[in-house]
Specification:
24% helix, 5-stranded mixed β-sheet, alpha+beta, 5 strands, 91 residues
Length: 91
């Protein structure tokens, strides 16, 4: 079953290669979506793929990149609003 989620990750997640590590992990799991920095210092992520792989990615986001310090991960299941072909980093 396919699942799409909108995620906000808060903590020390900018300037610590968080989006790059997220991109790599999403690639390993063959997920589609994107990750981008928000002005408040958090990272916004959309993930789409098989439910078990999306759930595995959400679990990975609880820890994040080696230099990050994740404080919270807020997940909301959504209906896809755009066609996703791969996982990208938004600047």
């Amino acid at each position: 079953m396919k699942k799409t989620v909108h995620v906000i990750v808060e903590g020390r997640v900018q300037g610590v290669f968080f989006r790059d590590y997220t991109h790599r992990q999403a690639g390993r799991l063959k997920l589609k979506g994107w990750a981008g920095n928000l002005p408040d210092g958090s990272v916004e992520i959309v993930l789409s793929g098989p439910q078990e792989k999306v759930d595995a990615m959400i679990e990975w986001l609880q820890v994040g990149s080696p230099l990050s310090a994740v404080v919270s991960v807020n997940v909301e299941e959504i209906l896809p609003t755009e066609e996703l072909h791969s996982f990208t980093i938004r600047y």
